[in-house]
TrEMBL record:
<keyword id="KW-0067">ATP-binding</keyword>
<feature type="domain" description="ABC transporter">
    <location>
        <begin position="1"/>
        <end position="231"/>
    </location>
</feature>
<dbReference type="InterPro" id="IPR003439">
    <property type="entry name" value="ABC_transporter-like_ATP-bd"/>
</dbReference>
<dbReference type="GO" id="GO:0005524">
    <property type="term" value="F:ATP binding"/>
</dbReference>
<dbReference type="InterPro" id="IPR003593">
    <property type="entry name" value="AAA+_ATPase"/>
</dbReference>
<dbReference type="InterPro" id="IPR027417">
    <property type="entry name" value="P-loop_NTPase"/>
</dbReference>
<keyword id="KW-0813">Transport</keyword>
<protein>
    <submittedName>
        <fullName>Iron complex transport system ATP-binding protein</fullName>
    </submittedName>
</protein>
<dbReference type="Pfam" id="PF00005">
    <property type="entry name" value="ABC_tran"/>
</dbReference>
<dbReference type="GO" id="GO:0016887">
    <property type="term" value="F:ATP hydrolysis activity"/>
</dbReference>
<keyword id="KW-0547">Nucleotide-binding</keyword>
Amino acid sequence: MENLSWGVPGKTIVRDVTLAVEPGETVGLIGPNGSGKSSLLRCVAGLRTPTAGVVRYDGVEIASWPARERARRMAFVEQTADTDSDLRVSEVAMLGRTAHRSRWRGPDPADHEIVAAALQRLDLTALADRPWKQLSGGERQRTHLARALAQRTAGLLLDEPTNHLDVRHQLELMELVGGTPQTVVVALHDLALAARYCDRLVLMHGGTVVADGAAADVLTAPLLREVFDVEAEIGRDSLGHLAVGYREPVR
């Protein structure tokens, strides 16, 4: 991302963001609601056209790619995703294979193996034949994550992927994200999860980047006071992970 900006008439939402993500790196986007995290991800995914600046992937501007090419290189999971079709869980996950096959060819045995593996990684095998409309919010989120894994892309863009998930599945998902060889950019509200599983944190506020670096350098009491308007204490939990405690909102 180079000097990237995006907005709506009368309001700039992403402002002059320059950010490089290395191959295999997991970068966590953090910041309060309205800081521009989701809009930035949608620009990177090619779903929004920047009003200024460019997004490059391996040196190539993504604006030059057709949607099919983007889907072969990057998978994007939104905060909330829905469908009017009464697809089964396995059929939603199979949508991730669409860009990899001819429009006139149905799924082959290799596609089914890839989808089965993705469902297993997200603890969804038992729900493979469950209709979409019968799923809970967390099950729907995990199904769309399985679809993204089935795309087999080098890049993975996740917008609040732990939304609707219980604690167990939040931890399992973030272990998967932190351990994947894919290049990952993930927007998160949970600062403890971001600190534990991301290689690097990017703190956004007012549409721009205000801090970028290791969790211990970004999650500081002065920065959290400035960006989140809270008094915070930074320490370590019993497992040695960075922990953030909140005393009170700034008044």
